[in-house]
Amino acid sequence: MNEIESTLIIANDISYLNTDTIEKIIALEKVGHYPISQGPFLSITDSYFDGLSPSWQKSGFSLRIRQSNLDTLITLKGPSQYLDNEITSKVEIERPWSPESLHEITDELKREDLQFKSAPSNVSSLDPHTALKMIGFRLIQTRLNDRRTKTILSPDGSSVVAEMAIDHVTYNNDTYPVKHNEIEIELKGSGNVSDLKNITGELTSLYPETLCPWRFGKLSTGMAIDYLHEKNKLEDLLFEDRSIKKTGYNALHEILSLVHEDTI
Length: 264
Known about the structure:
Number of domains: 1
Number of strands: 11
Helix content: 25-40%
Shape: globular
Strand content: 35-45%
């Protein structure tokens, strides 16, 4: 299925303004004409893998193992397509972890001519990380995400049009953890792109000092953070709590725009 969403980062060089915006968005009961209801809180650990071949690394596909509360999921995401300056669409296959799910996803990768080893016969007894490494994938990123979700309804309250996630992400690098805060609005139910544009526009008009469109995914954002760390340019771009300043996002945007690593 296609995942259609917009992303806003929470970015100001004054720390308390960012915190204040997060608290206000969590408390929202309406955005524009769209009523909002509270959804569940999710504690998520995401681990991303890629293949070792150059063709995999150029493909724009990513493979993810997600531990969400008590659930373990395997997800394949395709390259992003831009429907608007701030709205992206990508193919996503997400299933509960099982040998059948791994088989379905590897079949899809074969259709894309991406190469890897055959799954071992005892895959059902292996943890997901071990299984993926055995068929030729490598772990490239781990991150934690404390996610608060909110359901957005149609103006008359009769149907669901989107889900809003307030994400507090920690890139789990051993020596330099970095915190990243963003808002994702994903189309659900009867929602359409016009709804998504309206909701995103209403949010940015409510908090113009702190909310900015962000066209890059969490995976590529984390890779750019790693690059800044390797160049010894990261620390001055962080607050004391290790969250990213607006100047930090400007630096990340410059890197990501150059390399076009905007697929995840």
